[in-house]
Write a structure and sequence with these properties.
single chain, mainly alpha, 230 residues, 9 helices
Length: 230
């Protein structure tokens, strides 16, 4: 459980960092795709896409946490409770923007940003609630992770996200192919930066990741052996 939990956190942080990093090129891509539309509202809304993607980034690790911990609740016979929590979390993603939006002043960019923010809030609350439930049923040790390694992952993700955002939003692209190429370059670059910074903060992180991969491979081999013997 602890290995899966740590792996989920690492992958979630990496996913959020890459999403923030490529937000600029992705927003630019859709802006160019809609270049033939002369409407100001459409253009302004697409210009806000980068900020909306960044606001959605916290939902990426939250989704991973919900996926893992809901199954942990199933194992303990709390499937109904976990289902209610997940359902309410998704409901919150739709209700939150409605509560925050002012119909009198709401425009396209504001609506897009609040939809993304609502997703992060709703899924974040759902992930936090499931974490509390799992700690209560499994104990704190089930979700214990190496603090330094997690801190290194978060630090690396933050640097990668900020750096990628700066490059992606300040580099001009005038065609769709250029936007795609910039997005790919920024995405790969952000992962490299995250790895370098994370390892600089905690050199043992590489060993921990290798152990996670070996553990998963061992689980798969054991499962295959059980299937072959049945």
């Amino acid at each position: 459980m602890r290995q899966s939990w740590f792996a989920t956190l690492v992958v979630g942080v990496a996913g959020a960092a890459v999403l923030v990093a490529v937000a600029g090129p992705v927003g630019r891509f859709f802006g160019l795709l809609d270049a033939g539309n002369s409407g100001d509202v459409s253009r302004q809304t697409l210009d806000a896409m980068a900020g909306a993607l960044a606001a959605f980034a916290p939902a990426v690790p939250a989704l991973g946490i919900i996926g893992l911990l809901s199954r942990a609740c199933y194992v303990r016979g709390k499937a109904v409770l976990a289902g209610i929590v997940v359902g309410l979390a998704w409901l919150a993603t739709t209700i939150t923007p409605v509560l925050l939006l002012d119909p009198a002043t709401a425009d396209g960019p504001t609506t897009l940003r609040l939809l993304a923010l609502g997703s992060s809030i709703g899924l974040g609350v759902g992930a936090a609630t499931l974490t509390v439930l799992v700690v209560r049923d499994w104990g704190r040790r089930a979700l214990a992770v190496p603090v330094r390694a997690l801190g290194a992952t978060i630090a690396g993700g933050a640097v990668a996200a900020v750096g990628g955002w700066a490059v992606g939003t300040r580099t001009a692209t005038d065609d769709l192919v250029g936007a795609v190429g910039l997005g790919a370059a920024v995405g790969v670059g952000s992962l490299i930066v995250m790895a370098v910074v994370s390892l600089a903060v905690d050199p043992t992180l590489a060993r921990r990741v290798r152990l996670l991969r070996r553990g998963r491979r061992g689980d798969a081999d054991r499962a295959a052996g059980q299937e072959g013997g049945s």
